[in-house]
Amino acid sequence: MKILEEPFPGLLVIQPDVYKDERGFFLETWQQERYREIGIKEDFVQDNWSRSTKGVLRGLHFQKEHPQGKLVSVRRGKVFDVAVDIRPKSDTFGEWYGNELSDQNHLQMYIPPGFAHGFCVLSEVADFNYKCTDYYHPDDEGGIVWDDQILNIHWPVNDPIITDKDLELGSFEVLKKEYVT
């Protein structure tokens, strides 16, 4: 396994070792000791799996008082995954990073606590997995609207499928005023 990129402090793009032969492939998706060696010190307490169809955009989500670190990967299909740094004392506060994760490239992203997260589906169907460092607390949800003008994320979809709940998320400016300052 190797780190391909660390676009922001703590945000890692990981390429696991993949062993392929005529039968298929094998890869280790998590091994505590090895992942600690590359800097992931938090303990994971919850695993999530979502399935979405082409054009679905989920996010940008975070938890206010119980921020979650996430180790994300795609088991089937292809997504464009995005992390936004909302750590107020970070030099990269308000900046975003996006990368394509798929069942072909096997990339993982580790998104540390203090980031908003979202993804859009580029394939017909995508199965998305994430390990979380804190439990989901429904009353602690926060979010930033996907097309925020300040963040200016370059999503690779023109007319995404978005829940009403996600369409009503606040702007980055609201986040700065309510949750970060």
What is the CATH level 1 assignment? Mainly Beta
CATH superfamily: Jelly Rolls
Overall average pLDDT:
95
The total of beta strands comes to 13
| Share of helix, binned | 10-25%
| CATH architecture classification name | Sandwich
Give the count of helical stretches. 3
Query: How much is the radius of gyration in Å?
Result: 16 Å
Instruction: Please state how the strands of the largest beta sheet are arranged side by side.
Output: 1-2-10-7-12-5
Q: Which structural category fits the helices and strands?
A: mainly beta
- What profile does the largest beta sheet have? 6 strands, antiparallel
What is CATH's topology name?
Jelly Rolls
Q: Please give the domain count.
A: 1
**SSE succession:** EEEEHEEEEEEEEEHH
* Poorly predicted segments: none
Shape: globular
User: What's the oligomerization state?
Assistant: single chain
